[in-house]
Amino acid sequence: MKPTFVLLLAGVALLGATGAVAADTGGSQSTWPHDDTTTNESNATTISPGQQLAGAVGAQGAALQGELWNRTLADRLANATTAAERAEVVADETETLESYLDALTGVRGNLTDAWADGDLSEGEYRTSLAEFVVRARIVELRANQTVRAATNLSLAVRERNGVNVTRVRNVSEQAHELYQFEGPIGREVANETLANESVRSPLPKLGERSE
Questions:
Q1: Disordered: where is this region (predicted)?
Q2: Within a domain: 24
Q3: What is the Cα–Cα distance from 20 to 68, expressed in whole angstroms?
């Protein structure tokens, strides 16, 4: 078994620092900024209780980080006193979400390739998938919030400030697609992870002001 570098997603906040999963043998790797690497050479086929716990804790941690991230968005919108300021927040959020989506797309590709190539044990794959699913779901939900904030702005305000509702709605749809898996393990992990109450906890409501 050749050495495999696995970038676990656990414990890395989406805001300011993010996680990624990559398998590499010396070449380039796709990561989110400020991520740390963990080297793992295991090729075990069984899932240890520790791996199961790590997956559960990682997913719950990502959900908590996502809640805090979304509260930050709600606060930014609440602190914006004019339509132009709220439009600026929405435009900035759209760019940020697209960056996260691009990173997640690379993470999924590396993760699924590593699993297909036999570079990850089933336990490693499940553990990494659980947190990946949460992070993709977080981006989807935040994009949905941003869509609602955008639609509360008048068309004139959106046009003046470069706010495109379709653009951010596409981010939500693509983030949703990221945690749709064809393989049985991927589907099972996604379903189990999203069934967790801490993952499905409602996000704070945004202000209903419209301009």
A1: 24-44, 192-211
A2: no
A3: 19
Top-confidence residue, 65 or 153: 153
Residue 80 counted as domain residue: yes
Q: Report helix angle 122-151 to 49-79, nearest 10.
A: 10
Q: How far is CA 129 from the centre of its chain?
A: 11
Residue 119 lies in a domain: yes
Q: What share of the chain in percent tops pLDDT 70?
A: 59
Residue closest to 172 by CA, chosen among 196, 154, 146, 152: 146
Q: Whole-structure pTM over 0.85, yes or no? A: no
The domain tally of the chain equals 1
On whether the CB atoms of residues 69 and 15 are closer than 8 A, the answer is: yes
Domain that holds residue 108: 47-200
* Strand partners of residue 4: 40
Helices (H) and strands (E) in the chain, counts: 7, 2
